[in-house]
UniProtKB/TrEMBL annotation:
Active site per database record: 144, 152
Similarity-based family: Belongs to the YkuD family.
Record bears the keyword Transferase: yes
Organism: Mucilaginibacter angelicae
Name of the protein described by the UniProt record: L,D-transpeptidase family protein
One Pfam match: YkuD
Entry-linked PROSITE patterns: LD_TPASE
Top-rank taxon: Bacteria
InterPro entries given in the database record: LD_TPept_cat_dom, Transpep_catalytic_dom
Keywords assigned: Cell shape, Cell wall biogenesis/degradation, Peptidoglycan synthesis, Transferase
Stretches assigned to the L,D-TPase catalytic domain: 53-183
Record flagged with keyword Cell inner membrane: no
């Protein structure tokens, strides 16, 4: 009997820990409404299973893209118009500057807010490690509903219902972390020239390698830090 107890205890210790995903009646009701529709759209677009997702935001065209893993690569599933964001191009650097951040972020289940004052919300994880090293301030930067923003990326309620549900279901399927990459524009040379007056070229150039790698590989990229900048 002692050996059996010891075996059971060892199995409990090595059993995978199921991450708790914040939830609410509202979020559950939303899933019940939109998930069957999204599943049909996924199937119609050739996605055989639903696993990992990747989110990319392009500021100058107010676009949020949801990419879904298909085999070893990710494919674009849906694009959503961003209802509004504040501060124009250029990243957030301090609390109260009214800017919306640009950079490479990670969300975990705990960053879902199913009881937000802005309907449903996902904290993007600003400031990230690079921004912390640079001393950037501010917090609670979200992708949320209600189409109103001071530093966040606001969607219509109908759009955040789908985005939030896609993220929730990815976590429920076992994804531990979701990459959210935010760019001022599609990082092509013509766009750098077009926005030269913003004088953000040096910072934006640090984002370009990550953008280019994803475009080449169709797999979310991980960055490391060199000095106080992104490196890949």
């Amino acid at each position: 009997m002692p050996k059996l107890i010891a075996l059971l205890l060892s199995l409990l210790l090595i059993a995978p820990h199921k991450t708790e995903i914040p939830d609410s009646k509202l979020a559950g009701d939303v899933r019940a409404k939109v998930w069957p529709k999204l599943q049909k759209e996924l199937k119609d677009k050739g996605f055989k299973t639903y696993n990992s997702v990747y989110i990319r935001i392009i500021k100058d065209i107010s676009m949020l893209e949801v990419w879904v893993q298909s085999g070893k690569k990710y494919e674009l599933f849906k694009s959503y118009d961003v209802c509004t964001y504040s501060g124009g191009l250029g990243t957030k650097t301090r609390d109260g500057d009214g800017k919306s951040p640009e950079g490479f972020y990670t969300i975990e289940p705990k960053q879902l807010n199913p009881v937000s004052n802005y309907y449903l919300a996902i904290n993007v994880g600003y400031p990230n490690k690079v921004e912390q090293l640079k001393g950037y301030t501010g917090n609670a930067i979200m992708v949320h509903g209600h189409c109103a923003s001071i530093g966040c990326y606001a969607m219509t309620d109908a759009r955040i219902e789908e985005i939030y549900t896609l993220v929730y279901q990815a976590f429920a399927a076992g994804q531990q972390k979701i990459r959210v990459d935010i760019f001022p524009f599609r990082m092509e040379e013509a766009r750098f020239k077009f926005y030269a007056a913003y004088k953000q070229d040096a910072f934006w150039r640090t984002l370009k390698p990550g953008y280019d790698l994803f475009e080449k590989r169709q797999v979310p990229v991980e960055y490391h830090i060199k000095g106080k900048d992104y490196a890949f």
